[in-house]
Fold:
Amino acid sequence: MKIERSKDQLEGDIPIELPKDDPQNEMLFGVREVMPGLHTWTNPDNGFTVTRVHYTADPAKREAAWKKEARRGVTWSEWMREYEIVSSSFEGTPVYGDDFSRAFHVSKEALEWNSKYPVIRGWDFGLGAGGMACVIAQLLQNGRLFVYREVTASDTDLEHFAPEVARLCSDWFPAAVKWFDIIDPTGFNRSQLNKQRSCAVVLRENKMQPIPGIASQVIRRKAVSEFLSTNKRGLPKFVIDPDGCPMLVAGFEGGYHYAKQKDGQLREEPEKNEYSHPHDGLQMIACKVKTLDLNKDSHPSFGQASYGFGKTMPMTEPTRRYA
Structure:
């Protein structure tokens, strides 16, 4: 199982993109590392010697503090292209367009969670898409949604992923006494996992009580947009931790996007990739959090405003009972 623990990841700490040998086609570059950040090779087509200088060739620019400062005001795709020298960049249109702003929505310092409020987890099981994700947040009394952490995984199954998420959450939120877990309604179907057990059953086995989110992807994305596009006395209603959610931030900046078709038109649904999984988890939270009674036990009633404030979101789908 490969679990990516976002807090331990450094933005910009990306494998260097270098030419790869292809012996079958007699393409041998002979890449040589002269020093950290400096590589040379020979172009087999014309015999030219190529030198690639990465910013890490300067020892002063290998520190996390320098990277963090250099990243200010730079989108993820710009960073990848201009600093990491990665030739491929995100193609298409970001799902949330100009609704997201790193300067406005990403906190300047680590977010502090509040033990007085429930911790909410949004899950994406990546069924058939090769990845899983869990996003962890809180809705505070003033209606602001604080997103603290993401946990993503590949090459695993839910039986291993769920207990690892539970373990990490116990470390990150040791005093939390109330949890809400929101999942795609299809996660209650046994056929989604196997004939005997559903994703919801696996979560229950790990002492979680899954709640069905909204099935419509359009409604889910709209719920995120509403958080992004509103503010509370000039402060963003959606705030994300600067270090805890690198995949979410990169997704907002283009990783989570509408890809182009061969005719140049954008596809109707976002591209399924490593960025879409945490964003699907975030959508589960955004589409449901305003209709949960977070004052009560983790088994919620639907249609009540959170903490008794604000307006109740209209139920756009019929209320169903889930096994």
